[in-house]
């Protein structure tokens, strides 16, 4: 609960004056362990990679300055454009579907049914497992030609030995399904958010004769909008960085036919397999820009639909 | 407050610059340690890729080496194929490469041309390479330097699961001089007779297969740093899986795609659901184990013109010594032991391929049984078709195998026409080679 509440407060207060200098010092002291890590393990390597992105570097010979060559190379690289398409398709389709699934289940579970704790855990379980290598391996088997999914289809009389993983038209869909299946984290956050909505609002609405659907649209959605926004921003950023699932399911190739060549996977291939560290760094920085732009768009659009109760 | 931030940023930038300069300075370099044995105890590191059987055999062989050289201790590192190359690149970047490393033909030119590998001629007092075929030895050279010792050879052949053929009541045609047409006619019958349950074969999909295809068409894949295969010949190779998917030899496109990505035990051939497999001859033993039958034999690869000298002695794997090694003499002794020692030869067997050392190969052939015997004898069978070795894969083309599969998939799934794919693939390979050199 706390993280997105703070998130909302931060967004709200972003133009207000900061705290007193004395408080800042104390805060810095408490933040020191994190700050040291952030500077030495994240910030410095990041800036180093920015430098590397202007060089030709194969990790063995010293980097050679090449100016903007790596960035120019992207414009002529069909695999780069393809990896962008693959990733954006994945984000645009799987993020909204995942959020809708999470919200729907959260609303269902919020009715104070018996055994709620059990259901909550049960639905959360995939999120604990979903990002792991083991589940990606499992996924590969489930959607293989003699996998569980085809056996399931067989129950309905659809007899097929189609391999959903090995076909470029369906491979990305199996990964999207894997992403949607991990609706647990947003669901738990939605559940917490639903609890914060004052019950009186619903009572008042039902006195006024509003049906369930009307209540959901006019009370739940607006009241929940900061949380939906939080989940949306986090989901877009996270799913843009999807790597493990695609790496495992395609055996590191992004195949078949580059249909699961996610942006991060392509970046990894360029850096560690083709040993073009300079190009990989440039790709990484373009990704930073893309994610920043997407997040910026999200924030800009939030004005029109997110309500903070102040 | 504002000025404070400026200070932070300035400090940060200074730190980054410092870090960048030091990091750039510490790239790999030859240690230039004289190649003489050290006095006292020495520890060297040995690294390879491979599965459980290889780990067991190698550890056992090393125990024998340590017994013979009590002052040398060998530490071992191993991983799977993909992880191995990621790790080696990072280790080399950090100046921390293992003293002795297993090397592949795809990566030899890269590490060789980066001066990351020791010229083994400098260690000739401790390492004897005269026990192998000169044409094979030459394939361990980069820019005229002997940067690696071929430890095994690898031959392409057709592994045939006779159990499958027997159960379908099919008889193999004469394989000594068979053509691709004869091969595919027969493979088609397998799929047809089994009603698609069992498939005939899958099309070759790696650099070795492509090299042989080029040679059979009177061409070479590479010459020095140039991609010299013609777009037409490459197109016919890229088209092969698409044709075989259509006529049923490999079932359908997805089945082929799935088979190319699967680990050995999960392939149709490993599960006994495929009659023939075009691959390294020594793979016959692991495939026989996976399919649970001993009834497998080897046939030569079909040719365009039967009897031509299109085969060659391809090094299966190499041993190489890091140029940064602090103990090059001891590292060379270890390589010598692994390549030339009879006990080591007996322990290592054919798991890494057919031993490059001819004496050890003959010794193994005498005692071998079952599928091991079949693969050792196969060398003699293809002897008449051995020609001159081609150029090794140039620096920048290490990803060849994956590139081939990617373009073949594009053709199989109808994303590109074979000839367009071939032209693009040649351009991509050449760009990659030019970029690396």
Automatic annotation (TrEMBL), chain A:
TM region positions: 26-48, 88-109, 121-139, 173-194, 221-240, 280-301
Gene Ontology annotations for the cellular component aspect, listed alphabetically: plasma membrane
Compartment(s): Cell membrane
Pfam name, any one: BPD_transp_1
GO biological process: transmembrane transport
Keyword Nucleotide-binding: no
Keywords noted in UniProt: Cell membrane, Membrane, Transmembrane, Transmembrane helix, Transport
Residue intervals of the ABC transmembrane type-1 domain: 80-298
Membrane topology value: Multi-pass membrane protein
Family to which this protein belongs: Belongs to the binding-protein-dependent transport system permease family.
Protein name in the entry: ABC transporter permease
Native species: Bifidobacterium callitrichidarum
Lineage: Bacteria, Bacillati, Actinomycetota, Actinomycetes, Bifidobacteriales
UniProtKB/TrEMBL annotation, chain B:
Record bears the keyword RNA-binding: no
Annotated InterPro entries: Bact_solute-bd_prot1 (IPR050490), SBP (IPR006059)
Keywords from the UniProt entry: Signal
Endpoints of the signal sequence: 1-25
Keyword Cytoplasm belongs to the record: no
PANTHER family: ABC TRANSPORTER SUBSTRATE-BINDING PROTEIN YESO-RELATED, ARABINOSE-BINDING PROTEIN-RELATED
Name of the protein this chain belongs to: ABC transporter substrate-binding protein
Organism taxonomic ancestry: Bacteria, Bacillati, Actinomycetota, Actinomycetes, Bifidobacteriales
């Amino acid at each position: 609960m706390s993280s997105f509440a703070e998130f909302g407060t931060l967004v709200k207060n972003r133009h207000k004056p900061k705290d007193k200098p004395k408080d800042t010092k104390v805060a810095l002291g408490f933040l020191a362990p994190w700050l040291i890590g952030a500077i030495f393990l994240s910030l410095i390597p990041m800036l180093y990679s920015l430098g590397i992105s202007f060089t030709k570097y194969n990790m063995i010979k010293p980097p050679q300055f090449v100016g903007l060559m790596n960035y120019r190379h992207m414009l002529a690289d069909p695999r780069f454009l393809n990896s962008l398409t693959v990733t954006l398709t994945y984000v645009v389709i799987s993020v909204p579907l995942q959020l809708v699934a999470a919200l729907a289940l959260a609303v269902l579970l919020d009715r104070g049914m018996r055994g709620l704790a059990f259901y909550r855990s049960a639905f959360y379980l995939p999120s604990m497992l979903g990002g792991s290598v083991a589940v990606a391996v499992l996924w590969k088997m489930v959607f293989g030609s003699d996998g569980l999914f085809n056996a399931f289809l067989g129950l309905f009389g659809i007899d097929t030995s189609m391999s959903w993983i090995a076909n470029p038209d369906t491979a990305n869909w199996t990964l999207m399904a894997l992403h949607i299946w991990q609706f647990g984290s947003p669901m738990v956050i939605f559940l917490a958010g639903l609890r914060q909505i004052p019950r009186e609002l619903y009572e008042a609405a039902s006195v006024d004769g509003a049906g369930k659907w009307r209540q959901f649209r006019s009370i739940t959605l607006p009241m929940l909008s900061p949380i939906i926004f939080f989940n949306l921003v986090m989901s877009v950023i996270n799913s843009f960085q999807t790597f493990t699932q695609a790496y495992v399911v395609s055996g590191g190739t992004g195949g078949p036919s580059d249909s699961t060549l996610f942006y991060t996977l392509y970046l990894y291939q360029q850096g560690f397999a083709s040993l073009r560290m300079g190009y990989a760094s440039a790709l990484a920085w373009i990704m930073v820009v893309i994610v920043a732009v997407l997040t910026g768009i999200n924030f800009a659009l939030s004005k029109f639909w997110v309500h903070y109760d102040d | 407050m504002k000025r404070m931030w400026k200070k932070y940023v300035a400090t940060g930038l200074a730190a980054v610059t410092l870090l960048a300069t030091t990091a750039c300075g510490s790239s790999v370099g030859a240690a230039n340690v004289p190649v003489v044995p050290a006095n006292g105890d020495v520890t060297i590191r040995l690294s390879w890729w491979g599965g459980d059987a290889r780990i067991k055999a190698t550890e056992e062989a090393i125990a024998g080496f340590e017994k013979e050289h009590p002052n040398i201790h060998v530490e071992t590192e191993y991983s799977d194929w993909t992880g191995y190359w990621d790790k080696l690149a990072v280790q080399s970047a950090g100046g921390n490469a293992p003293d002795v490393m297993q090397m592949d033909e795809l990566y030899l030119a890269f590490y060789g041309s980066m001066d990351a590998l020791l010229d083994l001629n400098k260690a000739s007092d401790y390492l004897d390479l005269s026990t192998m075929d000169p044409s094979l030895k030459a394939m361990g050279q980069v820019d005229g330097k002997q940067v690696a010792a071929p430890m095994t050879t690898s031959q392409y052949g057709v592994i045939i699961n006779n159990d499958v053929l027997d159960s379908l009541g099919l008889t193999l045609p004469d394989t000594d001089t068979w053509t691709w047409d004869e091969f595919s006619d027969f493979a088609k019958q397998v799929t047809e007779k089994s009603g698609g349950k069992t498939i005939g074969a899958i099309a070759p999909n790696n650099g070795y297969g492509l090299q042989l295809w080029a040679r059979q068409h009177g061409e070479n894949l590479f010459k020095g740093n140039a991609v010299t295969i013609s777009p037409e010949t490459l197109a016919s190779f890229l088209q092969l899986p698409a044709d075989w998917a259509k006529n049923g030899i490999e079932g359908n496109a997805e089945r082929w795609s799935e088979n190319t990505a699967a680990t050995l035990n999960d392939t149709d051939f490993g599960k006994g659901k495929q009659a023939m497999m075009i691959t390294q001859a020594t793979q016959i033993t692991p495939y026989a184990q996976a399919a649970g039958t001993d009834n497998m034999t080897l046939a030569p690869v079909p040719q365009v013109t039967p009897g031509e000298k299109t085969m060659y002695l391809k090094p299966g794997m190499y041993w190489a010594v890091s140029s940064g090694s602090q103990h090059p003499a001891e590292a060379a002794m270890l390589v010598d032991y692994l390549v030339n020692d009879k006990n080591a030869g007996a322990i290592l067997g054919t798991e890494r391929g057919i031993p490059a050392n001819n004496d050890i190969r003959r010794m193994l052939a005498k005692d071998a049984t079952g599928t091991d015997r079949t693969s050792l004898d196969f060398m003699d069978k293809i002897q008449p078709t051995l020609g001159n070795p081609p150029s090794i894969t140039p620096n920048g083309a290490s990803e060849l195998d994956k590139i081939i599969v990617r373009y073949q998939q594009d053709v199989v799934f109808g994303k590109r026409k074979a000839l367009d794919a071939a032209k693009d693939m040649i351009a991509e390979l050449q760009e990659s080679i030019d970029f690396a050199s």
